Amino acid sequence: MKYDGVSQAELALRLGTPGCLVLPRVTSTLDLIHELAAEGAPAGTVVLAEEQVAGRGQRGRVWLSPAGGGVWLGYLVRPGASAAGGVLALRVGLAVVSALADLGAVVKLKWPNDVMLDGRKLAGVLCEGRTLPGGAEWLAVGVGINVRGPVPRELAGRAAALDEIVSEPSRVAVLERLVPALHLLAHTPRLTAEERGAFALHDWLAGRRIREPIEGEVAGIDHDGALVVTTAAGERRLMSGSIVTAPG
User: Fold this and answer.
1) CATH tag, 209-245
2) CATH code linked to domain 8-189
3) Hey, which bits of the chain come out as E strands?
């Protein structure tokens, strides 16, 4: 099967991946990555789908993935234990920001895994770890990028698409900038000062007040990828959670 006119074999070469599987319709590309990983697929294996019927977002939410509407990507990382999924998700988010910047899109990162355009979600990242009884382990990385609009009417106020700011964006062009960067990501358990600095440049939450899961003002992230929030009782760290900003 071809992906925007490019064959699987050619796409694998252009992305520098040991394996690239393109499918017309899947539940989630993460499901396929887990299946391939359990069968021994190498790190850097990529799964792309034209459509996901059960795309996953943070905390069990559904990620709408209409046919041809975006980049629905699954990516295999081995070994999984060297980096927590939360830290890796932040690194992947930075790679997405860089890839989109190369295409002329200026976006922000909303901790822990959202890419924002003008306050609306353009892309998301989700990492899932698995360990088999024999000890084999991996992380499946899912990236969803809304490339072609319009977004569904019910999400128009909360979601955005790349073609709102980039004329006739190419999904292959996005992948050619993103996937090679994923191959080079560090898998150490803590973020470097350089990574934290890069995140700070694109931090959508920094300086904003939030009301859930705790009340306070966001100060940034730390080396462990935790969100640092200044509250009335002092500084708090959040390792996970769905952030709700305060009005105003």
Assistant:
1) 2.30.30
2) 3.30.930.10
3) 20-26, 46-52, 70-77, 108-110, 114-117, 120-131, 137-146, 209-212, 216-221, 227-231, 234-238, 244-245
